[in-house]
């Protein structure tokens, strides 16, 4: 073995910049795992208020980043109605995924979050004109196969956790559809416009839309909640984790792109398994490990062949060629 060649490669690849990007990727992955854990904890404490828990997040985003935007005194670079649409799909995605914790296990929800990549491929193909390579499609197919094993386990073959695991799985898959729309729009806005403006407007419109939906659908659930220190701390933990997620994600996307971001988020599934075993004292079925392995292999194949084929229309959608296909919760 040519050790000098290996050493030269190591020196060229392991730089402070690469280590910093790796650190940010793992940080956002750990924060995503904290979001999953606190949301699952809120559900286990008997609180069914998915809109309420995300309302605090949108409020903090609007206050912190909105204050920075107002201090700058600049006009919006993107029309407000686009931010309204972006906030709407983001709110629905958060609601459906957080609602799923009422019926399914944390491992199922975090693994099925990977379904976002499937929706992103479909949406970018239809509406943007992005063309994907055969290897990318093969990687996505492996992901779908792994996610199918999760559903199979939750159907009773392997004894998945949760009161109504299939309903929880369906909610997650529906939520990832909204997340994929939010992620595709958010990444384009962040890369082409102002990060502070994008995050603050998502917070503002997310807060307004959450307030409307909360007053219609969730007031009775809130009235039945017996607030305790544990519940308040769980809400605070979720708000802090999700605020950090919305804050760090744009940096990872700008510095690393979709490849490292997608690969980094895979470790959040591993954290979810650890949480389920250590905190909830639940056994994890062997199908989960096979499913996770297939998802990892599929996403590695997809991410390492990430360069999309330019459409035959002359490439007027070139700015969309590198899209984030695996963003969660946001």
From TrEMBL:
A GO cellular component annotation in the UniProt record: membrane
Subcellular location: Membrane
Protein name as it appears in the record: Solute carrier family 35 member F1
UniProt entry keywords in alphabetical sequence: Membrane, Transmembrane, Transmembrane helix, Transport
Transmembrane residue ranges: 20-43, 55-74, 80-97, 109-128, 134-153, 165-181, 201-219, 231-253, 286-304
Pfam families linked: SLC35F (PF06027)
Domain of life: Eukaryota
Membrane topology, as annotated: Multi-pass membrane protein
Main localization (coarse): membrane
Any GO MF annotation of the entry: transmembrane transporter activity
Organism name: Hibiscus trionum
InterPro entries (UniProt xref): EmrE-like, SLC35_F1/F2/F6, SLC35F_Transporter
Family: Belongs to the SLC35F solute transporter family.
